[in-house]
Amino acid sequence: MDFRIFDTAEEIARVCADYYSALLQKKPDAVLGFATGASPIPTYRELIRRNHSGALSFRNVTTFNLDEYCELPREDKNSYYTFMHENLFSQIDIREENVHLLNGNAADLNAEAAAYEQAIGTAGGIDLQLLGIGTNGHIGFNEPADHFTNKTFVVELAKSTVTSNKIYFENGAMPTHAITMGIGTIFAARQIILIATGSKKAKAIGMTVNGDITPRCPASVLQFHPNTVLLLDKEAAAEL
Ligand code: PGA
After folding, report:
1. Fewest beta carbons less than 10 Å away: which of 139, 184, 185, 188?
2. Average pLDDT of 210-222?
């Protein structure tokens, strides 16, 4: 695991977009794992800019998102389906049929999880997975737990996640569960980029880089990954 420290979120976005440019130049039909949350937004803006300038095309890529809330309509402004379409997919030359998001409203969520794993496998596995990190060290919605969960699964959200995310929901009423790629799903990506900015992430980043590898800090497992880079601002890197 490697980390790089920058002054601004915009610099992180440019450097992160450079990884996409390099990958897509080599492999225009790459499989991309995308993330939601505030952290990747500047990168998505930069990817859109490069797409509009003609420097970068998503015409042949396939995408898989990390996670989705359960029991939140797809059309809800807080669904990750809406987030991805508003912040990226509707603004680039991607083909909708190549976009994959988990359905948190599936009647059989276990079958949904199994089908997602199978679809990732059929696509050839994820070339580049983008991640944020929770203040509790979660990646995707792999919350601190007694064990790592390997494959895509349904999870009860941690209190700290509810505290962080309920600001986006009117009256603070937000889903209690989500469906998420497992640690094994994420770990199988050939390349991983984790973005963290702001002092609220400093403790989680300190544990991720220098702490024990433990499911109590799920991101710590990335210490074992052969091709992971953390893109951090100075505030997020304060405990390194
Ligand atoms: P954030 O969320 O980018 O909105 O801070 C990251 C996460 O919870 O994984």
Report:
1. 184
2. 98
> Which among 190, 156, 147, 153 is positioned nearest to 67, based on CA atoms?
153
Half-sphere exposure of 108 (CA within 13 A, CB side): 6
pLDDT of residue 20: 98
Distance 232 CA to ligand 1 centre (A): 13
Work out which ligand 1 atom sits closest to the CA atom of 134: 8
pLDDT at 179 over 90: yes
Q: How far apart are CA 9 and CA 37, in angstroms?
A: 14
Ligand 1 atom nearest residue 138's Cα: 9
Among 34, 36, 39, the mutation site with the greatest number of ligand 1 atoms within 8 A of its Cβ is 39
Which residue is it, tokens 């969520």?
Answer: 109
Q: Is the pTM of this model over 0.70?
A: yes
Which domains are delineated in the chain?
2-233 (3.40.50.1360)
Tens of pLDDT, residues 220-229: 999 999 999 9
Q: Which protein residue's CA is at the shortest distance from atom 2 of ligand 1?
A: 37
Whether the CB of 132 sits within 6 Å of ligand 1: yes
- pLDDT tens column, 130-143: 999 999 999 999 99
Mean pLDDT of 45-51: 98
Any idea which residue has 């603070």 for tokens? 172
**d(C-alpha 110, C-alpha 101), whole Å:** 15
Catalytic residues: 67, 136, 138, 143
pLDDT tier at 176 (50, 70, 90 boundaries)? very high
